[in-house]
Amino acid sequence: DGSFTVAKTSGLQAALDGLAAEVQELSAVTPPKATFTTDITSHGAAADGTTDDTAAFVAAIDAVKAAGGGTVIIPNTAVRVVAPATRAQVFWLSKNVHILGAGPKSEILYESAATASYRILFTIEGDWASVRQLTITRTNDLNGSAIDLHEGRGNRLERVTISGGKATYGAGTFHGITINGGSGKALRELAITSCSVNDCDYGLMRDSSQAITVQDVTVEGCSFSRQLATDLEFNAPNAVMRNITVRGCTFRDNACQGPDAGWGVGLTNVQGASISNCTFTGYPMNAIHIEDKS
Asked: Residue 122 and residue 39: Cα distance in Å, rounded?
């Protein structure tokens, strides 16, 4: 009768819904192939270290997004980027957008005309995005950060050198890497490998006021030196942060002058942290600082 047919259809639909959910989950954890490639010089960048190439950079990123993902190549030379006065995020990297330096001299000379306004060079908001083989050098007193991780899964920072220039440009606050995002946002399976962060305020700072969920972060083979605050600040008093791994890293010559920062690694409300095979030299405060439910 009709009741049997309805029950059978309902069971089949439940099975199909479950299968669809499994397929969706599998696609979410499998990085898509990034086959499209473009060079910023193909979009008008002079790449001479003096011309402002911000517009060409935006055009190259837009071309990659339009192609459904891919790689923006930075030439093996210095490129000047001036943060616009009208937007806080200079470059948005969405799902499967990759920035790659062509060689060891690939460098962004980063400045801002509106130094009092907070400006972020790269904002990552999407799965499987990356910045690789690139030097980012702050060249004036701008406030901001080099890379902000807003949300996403499987993002990668590899062989990135960030020089904050705080010894030369002391005004303004400048962080190497920041993690931001409100309630409902999540950052998962982040890998930071073979990077160097020097002469910033915080090397990496997870904003304590943000409610973003952060889990499965690996920092490996990196070096941190001369920060004015903490090198790696995993600070989550009001949110979830778990499975943080720091291994094979070098920390040295912290320049913090205050009592409430200046750690090599700081952990607040972090579950499942591991710090191994690291070296700490020249820390006026704790090399490793663990507090509040960690």
From this structure: 17
